[in-house]
Amino acid sequence: MDGQEYRQFDAWLARVNSACGRFSGQPLEGRFRGQLDEFCAGSMKLSTVEIGNARMQRGRRELAESCDDWFYTVFQLEGKAQLEQEDARIELCPGDITLIDAARPSALNWHGHSRQISLLLPRHLLDVPGVSIPCARRLDGSAPVVRLSHQLLHESMKGKELTICESDAALSALVCLLRPALTGRDAPTSRREQLFSKVTRMIDDHLACDDLRPEWLASEVGMSVRSLYRLFADKGLVVAQYIRNRRLDRCALALRGESSDEKLASVGYSWGFTDHSHFSTAFRQRFGITPGEYRRRHR
User: Fold this and answer.
1) pLDDT for 12-32, tens place per residue?
2) What ranges in 101-234 are assigned the alpha helix state H?
3) Over the stretch 221-245, which tens digit does the pLDDT of each residue have?
4) How many whole angstroms separate alpha carbon 295 and alpha carbon 252?
5) N-term to C-term CA, the chain
6) Got the DSSP string for 260-296?
7) What is the model's pTM?
8) What is the pLDDT of residues 182-208, one digit of tens each?
């Protein structure tokens, strides 16, 4: 591989890190090719990845530098891909789906041409107390529920104007389709799950309010702050971080508006960030680029 191909690989890997979180990697023997197209609609964040002859891995160093509050849901479209997580090793064929935990080490290998979609699935949507979520497990593309999941994803990608509620509904529908296939059973509905849904809906309804803090939230739903923290900890989440990330998602949606000429500081202020420097730092931590760069890229 010559210097130009190495530069192409480095540029492609940088785009992957911006869209999907921190990975390291190296080209494999043969001609490297790589392309990445991002898609964002409301809460739905995914990337279409075209790649050939490369390896990516996510080890301790990459985990320490990344957000881990999601799963990578991989929809294989063309070619094959080899995925590893802990002791599991699988090969995906066109139509297959698998789940990779962003909080644990993993590796992906592509020999020859491959094309896939990587959907960021928020951890709280899939994690249920008492239900184990197996990762790096191949869901066969011939299974009806897997075919339906592909169809739902592709239909959702046709509408970039999906609202937050619509994109949340699409993600929830995907979870409802995939969870039985992943776990072998439907997740039980409990009072605790209902309470968590109530709290997250209240967060979404009050994202622009200055009073939206754990103390206020606990008071509104009639529970102690400690119980609120425990409710989110059961999902592997921190309530203050969850609120911040939801606010950042709304800011990103505003920045993607084609007619939006609003000042960056005003966008942050509209969604609860009173300090522009803090907003810019938090945005870069979540999306890998500054708010200004994000706006320019999505225009």
Assistant:
1) 888 888 888 889 999 888 888
2) 123-126, 144-157, 164-183, 191-205, 214-221, 225-233
3) 999 999 999 998 887 788 998 899 8
4) 8
5) 34
6) ----HHHHHHHTT---HHHHHHHHHHHHSS-HHHHHH
7) 0.66
8) 776 544 556 787 888 889 889 988 988
Domains, the chain, ordered by start: 3-183 (2.60.120.10), 191-298 (1.10.10.60)
Q: What are phi and psi of 288, to 5 degrees?
A: 85, -5
| DSSP for residue 188 | P
Buried b / exposed e across 11-24, counting CB within 10 Å, b at 16+? ebbebbbbbbbbbe
Residue with tokens 């997740």: 187
Give 111's pLDDT tier (boundaries 50, 70, 90): confident
What single string gives the DSSP state of each residue in 23-79? -EEEE-SS--EEEEEEEEETTEEEEEEEEEEEEEEE-HHHHHTS--SEEEEEEEEEE
CB 250 within 8 A of CB 164: yes
pLDDT at 97 over 60: yes
Residue with tokens 């849901």: 73
Q: Is the pLDDT of residue 73 over 70?
A: yes
d(CA 71, CA 57): 15
Q: Which one-letter amino acid corresponds to residue 35?
A: Q
For residue 162, give the 3-state DSSP assignment.
coil
Phi first, then psi: give them for residue 142, nearest 5 degrees: -85, -10
Token reading at 241:
């971080």
Q: Write the single-letter amino acid at 237.
A: L
Q: What CA–CA distance (Å, rounded) separates 134 from 118?
A: 17
pLDDT (0 to 100) of residue 190 = 67
